[in-house]
């Protein structure tokens, strides 16, 4: 069973890599756009764009569609090179060593 620390470490890495993809797509377009311009196109706050690019937040599914549309790419492009995380958030019940307490 995964521990919360393993889960958190893998999620952090995944989000940083996703953020790098967003930044790369934003800057390597035929006409690169600033975070401010992307914020205008998406109607997301500029700090939200920054947090996504830093891997500090886990964007919602609708945000993926909004970003892809504003950048003129597909969601597949946003996720390119990322692998599905292996670790899963541990169940709160997993914290108890003596499972017989719940029988």
Radius of gyration: 17 Å
Major beta sheet, specifics? none
Helical percent range?
Answer: 55-70%
Q: Count helical runs.
A: 5
Structure description:
- By secondary structure, the chain is mainly α.
- The protein has one domain (4-85): lambda repressor-like DNA-binding domains (434 Repressor (Amino-terminal Domain)).
- 55% of the residues lie in helices and 0% in strands.
- It has 5 helices and no strands.
- Helix 1 packs across helix 3 and helix 2 packs across helix 3.
- The longest helix is centred in the first third of the chain and has 24 residues, at 4-27.
- It is elongated.
- The two termini are 20 Å apart.
- The model is unreliable at 98-103 (pLDDT under 50).
Main attributes of the structure:
single chain; 103 residues; mainly alpha; 434 Repressor (Amino-terminal Domain); 5 helices; disordered C terminus
Structure summary:
The chain has 103 residues and is mostly helical.
Record the SSE blueprint.
Layout: H1 4-27, H2 35-42, H3 46-54, H4 61-71, H5 75-79
Helix pairs in contact: 1-3, 2-3
């Amino acid at each position: 069973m995964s521990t919360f620390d393993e889960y958190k470490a893998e999620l952090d890495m995944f989000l940083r890599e996703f953020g790098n993809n967003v930044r790369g797509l934003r800057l390597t377009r035929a006409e690169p756009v600033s975070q401010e311009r992307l914020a205008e196109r998406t109607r997301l706050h500029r700090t939200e764009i920054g947090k996504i690019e830093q891997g500090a937040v886990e964007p919602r599914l609708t945000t993926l569609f909004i970003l892809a549309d504003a950048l003129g790419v597909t969601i597949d492009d946003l996720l390119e090179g990322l692998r599905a995380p292996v670790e899963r958030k541990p169940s709160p019940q997993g914290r108890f060593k003596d499972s017989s307490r719940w029988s």
